[in-house]
Amino acid sequence: MPRAADKQSVPSEIPSRPHLTVIENAASQQRGSEAQEKQFLLRGTPAYRRASIALFLSGFATFSLLYCVQPLMPIFASDFGISPAASSLSLSLCTGLLAFAIFCAAAVSESFRRRSLMFASLLGAALCTIACALVPSWHALLVIRALEGLLLGGVPAVAMAYLSEEIDPRGLGASMGLYIAGNAFGGMAGRVVTGTLAEFFSWRIALGTLGAIGLAAAIGFFLLLPASRNFTPRKGFNARFHLGAWAGHIRSPALPFLFAIGFLAMGTFVTLYNYIGFRLVQAPYNLNQTELGLIFTVYIFGIAASWIAGLLGDRFGHFVVLPSGIALSAIGVALTLSASLPLIILGIVLLTSGFFVAHSVASALVGRLAKGTKGHASSLYLLSYYIGSSVAGSVGGYFWGADGWNAVVIFTLTLLAIGMVAALAAARLSRR
């Protein structure tokens, strides 16, 4: 019966057609039986609410600690006497090593309890952020940020695997959307808090404060998250098993295209946020750090978009919602070409909303389409996701240096165009 449910879950992702209603209803009944057999967390139960809040906190802590340096890049460039592209290393180096760590964490997590591994990662990353506030040199800061990226790798792939294993499949899209909403809220809070505190105090106080908030979120996460009921740690380390699991997901027809979407969507998102600050602190805008930090409050739209995208994906099909998110991002990027500050901010709003729609839906699709070893599938998606952040985020600096904002927009729109092709290809291949 569980295998039948798996087979029925794939067609439900095809763009909605009237004759698919019967298929989707049958799949829903079969997944209901699977939920009883596997003791899934059902929506509306206390355990489900505790898990949702805990994973929201993990997403909040991860993204606030990861992206807290983004609004500080112009300050780093000034204080340490480095270029804008070099200042982006404070983020790109962290996300690059995070991508590598996520890939390893999927294998390591098979031998450790999910909750303990995520807690240790969050705790270590928060302490690293506090350490960044104390170091005297730019190179020391980069070393600690690199270590922080390695530590944070124990959270994203494991969290996605936990959701896929423990949440009733009928509500996986909504729960994944809530987790991504925590990511969005963390990204917003990290940027706004550091930007504002850096304006009134210093960037060191800003990072120290955010590190303390991260510690509190890590403790709350550990106290709230229910232990896994559908996962048993493996004894020892079987390299052949892990290599086979990754190879199996890469050979899947649709999954590689979803991995590519993670790279392209995240690359676009980080590139725009990395360099929009350099544009807006210059004439004619001349924004200060507080004003620049407040622009990141548009993340609130990403929080709502993640949750709504999860619900719409469960209702109408994830492959219907996915290209819509990519298209919305492209419209937002194009609007930032305007010289009007309100239109630039509107463009950032649309880009943010579209990105979180695409990311939320793609994450849920990876969890649903992966056949077994979901942690390995999540790690491949997130590996692409964070490599996109690291590579595109730094490459975008060369476009900024070559021809300013127009070149950045051309670069990011090209990434999104490829992402749209990948989304349509994944939808077509999933029908097989």
Key words describing this protein structure:
single chain; 80% helix; 432 residues; mainly alpha; disordered N terminus; 0% strand
Coarse morphology: globular
How much of the sequence lies in strands comes to under 5%
- How far apart the termini lie comes to 20 Å
Cα radius of gyration in angstroms? 21 Å
Low-confidence stretches: 1-36
Structure summary, number of beta strands: 0
Overall SS class: mainly alpha
Total count of helical runs of at least 4 residues: 18
Task: Name the helicity range.
Answer: over 70%
Overall pLDDT confidence: 81
Sequence of secondary-structure elements: HHHHHHHHHHHHHHHHHH
Biggest beta sheet attributes: none
Notes on the structure:
- The protein is an all-alpha fold and about 425 residues long.
- Helices cover about 80% and strands about 0% of the residues.
- The longest helix has about 55 residues, at about 375-430.
- The chain is globular, with a radius of gyration of 21 Å.
- Mean pLDDT is about 80; it is low at about 1-35.
Brief summary of the model shown:
This protein has helices at residues 2-9, 20-38, 46-67, 73-79, 84-87, 89-108, 114-132, 138-152, 156-166, 172-200, 203-224, 239-251, 255-280, 289-295, 299-316, 318-335, 341-369, 374-430. It has 432 residues and is mainly alpha-helical.
